[in-house]
């Protein structure tokens, strides 16, 4: 799979085969991709928590706000929930400004997850106090992103954007549609 | 090349074969990778400027602060400068908060550049007023990152970090050394 195929295949996914276990070695391999990605001023302030057991997944799930545009949908039902989570944190003892380090890292991780046959979702809309409490995360670490991972069961289609409406939606077959801006809208000629 | 090989090969590079032209089609292909990468709430607020001519490269170069830790080095000499630039901007008419969208996009672009045989550097340390003036960038667009691209001529080695010193350095052969934290330092067990 070349990078274009991998990037095209890496769609945000929110419904999974929950019983499909993701081995810790795979998660560690994903963090190694993040480790070798660029970091502002090479500070490398990101730290990671890895979870791949039903017990922890159940505890993390309530901290996440799912799919803002799907107002009727409270998030994946039991059986279709993520089977692993990566929590990306900033280590305040190194720096308190993380620039876009966690975006860079998250993209490396999600591409790696796709290559390994998984998929998932980058989530910044987090009930941080609840999560900190549940996982006993020390104050030294700022919670930046959660990556929810699993074996995708969702069909996702990318459409050209219409009427500037960027809201994703689901059709009657529960296929998830994502409107994307076209290339000629993104490249400016000044 | 699998993703791990690609990520490992994607080192921040600051010295290039300046005479090596990068075709506009290649740059457009890189933006397509960014286009298909995740965006917070699918807003897709990023816009891009592409430059691949000596004239524009010369005009952009003075807006960039190069390699903060190499105090003696003012940046690449003529002949070793980037032969293309991508300016990543936020379109304030869409949103004024870009989350880590530009980190995600930049990583897709840099991985794509490596796959295409190029390399480069994500730069946030930008003389923004100077750049805005030089390129006539309207106020509507916030300048987020510059990606400097070219055909690498630099040898780069990743070392395990020592004494928590994250500063990259050059040895007597002008090989660039980058200390990276080890995996077991990044993955926390709470």
Notes on the structure:
- The structure is a homodimer of 190-residue chains.
- Chain A has 190 residues and is α+β, with helices and mostly antiparallel strands.
- Chain A is built from six helices and seven strands, in the order ααβαβαβαββββα.
- In chain A, the strands form two sheets. Chain A has a four-stranded antiparallel beta sheet. Chain A has a three-stranded mixed beta sheet with strand order 5-7-6, with no helix packed on it.
- In chain A, helix 2 packs across helix 4 (101-115).
- The longest helix of chain A has 15 residues, at 101-115.
- In chain A, 43% of the residues are buried.
- The model of chain A has no long low-confidence stretch (mean pLDDT 97).
- Chains A and B meet through helix 1, helix 2, strand 1, helix 4 and strand 7 of A and helix 1, helix 2, strand 1, helix 4 and strand 7 of B.
What's the quick description here?
2 copies of one chain form a homodimer. Chain A has 6 helices and 7 strands.
Descriptive key words:
homodimer; 190 residues; alpha+beta; 4-stranded antiparallel sheet; 3-stranded mixed sheet; 6 helices; 7 strands; globular
- Tell me the helix content of chain A: 25-40%
Any idea what the shape of chain A is? globular
Estimated structural class of chain A: alpha+beta
How many H/I helical runs of chain A? 6
Strand content of chain A: 15-25%
What Rg of chain A, in angstroms, do the CA atoms define? 17 Å
What's the SSE blueprint?
The structure is a homodimer of 190-residue chains.
Chain A: H1 3-9, H2 24-35, E1 46-51, H3 54-60, E2 84-91, H4 101-115, E3 119-123, H5 128-135, E4 141-150, E5 156-160, E6 169-170, E7 176-180, H6 183-186
Parallel strand pairs in A: 5-7
Antiparallel strand pairs in A: 1-2, 2-4, 3-4, 6-7
Helix pairs in contact in A: 2-4
């Amino acid at each position: 799979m070349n990078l274009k195929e991998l990037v095209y295949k890496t769609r945000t996914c929110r419904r999974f085969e929950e019983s499909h276990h993701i081995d810790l070695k795979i998660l560690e391999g994903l963090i190694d991709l993040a480790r070798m990605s660029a970091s502002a001023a090479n500070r490398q302030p990101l730290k990671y928590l890895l979870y791949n057991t039903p017990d922890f997944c159940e505890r993390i799930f309530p901290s996440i706000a799912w799919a803002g545009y799907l107002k009727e949908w409270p998030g994946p039902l039991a059986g279709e929930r993520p089977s692993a989570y990566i929590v990306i944190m900033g280590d305040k003892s190194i720096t308190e400004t993380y620039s876009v380090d966690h975006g860079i890292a998250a993209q490396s991780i999600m591409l790696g997850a796709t290559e390994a046959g998984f998929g998932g979702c980058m989530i910044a809309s987090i009930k941080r106090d609840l999560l900190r409490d549940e996982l006993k995360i020390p104050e030294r670490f700022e919670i930046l992103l959660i990556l929810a991972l699993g074996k995708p069961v969702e069909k996702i289609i990318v459409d050209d954007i219409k009427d500037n409406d960027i809201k994703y939606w689901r059709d009657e077959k529960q296929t998830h549609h994502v409107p994307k801006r076209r290339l000629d809208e993104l490249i400016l000629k000044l």
